[in-house]
Structure formats: structure tokens, C-alpha cells
Design a protein that fits this description.
390 residues, alpha+beta, FAD/NAD(P)-binding domain, D-Amino Acid Oxidase, Chain A, domain 2, 2 domains, 8-stranded mixed beta sheet, 6-stranded mixed beta sheet, 38% helix, globular
Amino acid sequence: MKTQVGIIGGGPSGLLLSQLLHLEGVDTVVLEQRSRDYVLGRIRAGVLEKGMVGLMRRAGIADRLEREGEVHKGFDIASDGRLFNIDMEALTGGDSVVVYGQTEVTRDLYEARDRMGGIVIHEALDVTPHDITGDAPYLTYAKDGVTHSVDCDYIIGCDGFHGVSRRSIPEDKLRIFERVYPFGWLGILSRTTPVSGELIYARSARGFALCSLRSRVLSRYYVQCSLDDTVEDWPDDRFWDELKRRLPEEVAGRLETGPSIEKSIAPLRSFVAEPMRYGNLFLAGDAAHIVPPTGAKGLNSAAADIHYLFEALMQHYRDGDDRGLAAYSDKALARVWKAQRFSWWMTTLLHDFPENGAFGQRMQQTEIDYLMASRAAQVSLAENYVGLPF
């Protein structure tokens, strides 16, 4: 098989790039290790920046988003019983975010690729890039006991933190920056009315909590937990009780509880691999960088990578200009590090770090006090939350 762009990973990043390129007449093949049902069964974040929404419109997959997505013009920060609103629309001159689940984004992309006859090969095992620094890069994979080959001009690694793409770059060519946080997020999904129409980020002496939602009848809640905890340690009753303890009384009093329909624990880490290009192999999304979910930047940072890659590839195929490809890593990383800074700042602001002691806790509280009193600080928060420009 021969194509122009070979994409490893059938999640939202790989599918979005494939869809955008297809609309411009550039052929792609997407290789995904898992089945489609498995990919669509993954529960992920659902806060979309304005840049991601714009890319979905450009890719022709925004119809359902426009109907079902929840536009959020602000969010609340709670600390020690106080509730303070960040009015993003007023602070940024009209910008907002859209709450729309990553699973739904992926579903929309799959349906669009099906309509256009896009090639997405699922259960492609042992995917391996070859000759990535040569003139004839290609991919091999196994399916149904047969090894197949895909010749391509470029290989795009959208296969996540544990994928093969980053591991295909020699260790001496990569520089890794990483921080693993000493806690995780326990999250549940429930068919309950959300406690608030906007997200609530809550800091308390008992730890962080987040009140989020997927729709007007589907709630997503999180509490900070120990990395030693298991899902079995957290029956529903314990979760709801702990969540209420971390929220202001006025919020806890109206919280609707119910059986969880999904429950999981996610560790938190900050991670960046540099550079994001090696020869004809380009990394995007979690293959190159991971953020703690506190600032809702994971999918949105991946979308920025796809924007830069799409523009660079179109310059190459349309104009014969390779400057965009040459600049991709530096341009993407400049934005990646800004998203890392914001996610790190939100995480350190709102979570309990016992090892920081009384001084660290007082500094957290002082930072929140300053944020609540300073419009300049609120503008900075709002600008980063709605998404920095591409």
C-alpha cells in the first residue's frame, strides 16, 4: 500500500489530521492498534478551546457539536467555603469554551472518515516505522497473521504516551522533561443533573475536587486521591461523601447523587519530549507531551499540534515549501510549554501537597486571595483557559 501521509493512532488527533488533509486532496492511512469500539469506549476530557472548535468546523465535523455542545462563558473557583466566578467572556472580550466529550469528537471524526472513504485500519499490531531518516519511509504492521507495508512520504505519530512513535527516535536524540505528581484523580460519571451549569474547581484542606459535566443530565466529578488507592477503595457512597466535604456548603447542599456508570483513577504527570520531529517522523499530542488535566489542555494541545502539522504539510504539497515542516517542532513546542506552564500552575494552586508544609499551604491560599482580588490575574487565567492563539 502507498499513501502520502502515514498516521499512527486512530484517536482524535490522528483522525482530525487525516480528515483535514483528505479535504485538501492529500491521501492518508491511519493505523490503530485497538478496535473502534475500544477507542470509542475511552472516557476523556471534554472542554474544548476555541482553537479546537475552529478546527472541527474546518474539518466539517462540527454539526453535532453546534447542536449539543455546552458553551461555557466562565467557571468557578472554590476555596475554604468561598465561591468565586471567573467570567471568561468578559475578561477576554468575548471568548468561551465548549463542553463536548472527547468520545463524541472521536465518534464524529470516525463517521466523517467513513463518509469520505478514509482508510482507518483497526487492530493493526506491531506497527513499526522504518527508514525515518531516509528518502523512503514506510510503516509495517500485522493484521490477521499477515504483515503489511505502507509506503509514505511522512509518518505522523499520534499514538500516545505508550506508543511506538516516540520510542522510534534514538534516546540520544531526545530530551525528556517530566514531573510525576504524588497523587491521582478519582473520577466518576453519573446520570445525574450537574450541580452547576459551569465547572467548579475546588481547593480544600482535604484535597482538590472538580465538578464537571458531559451534558445537562450527565455529570463528571473528580477528587484528588492517593496513588496507592484503587477503584475498589472508593464505593459510590464514600465518593459522594468525600466530594461534599470538599465543596462549599451551598454547592454540597444541592449536589444530586446516584450510581456511578464509570469510575477510574488517573495519575497526574507533566511530560515533554524534545524535539517533536526526527527525520520524516513527526510527533503530535500525547506521543510528545502530557499535562495534568487541571487546566483542560490535553486534547487542546494536541489540536494545536495538528493545526501546525496540517498547515506545514499543505505548504509542502500545495506550494513545494518545506519551511513549515522544518519549523514544526520549534513552533509546536513554544505553545506546548505555555500549556504546560498553565497546567502546572493550576495544579499547584488547587491541590494538596502535604510535603510543602504550612508555608506552602499559606502560599497557595495567598495566591488564591490575589487571584480573587486582581483583575490582571483573572485576565491571565481566562486567556489561558479559553486557549492561546495558534
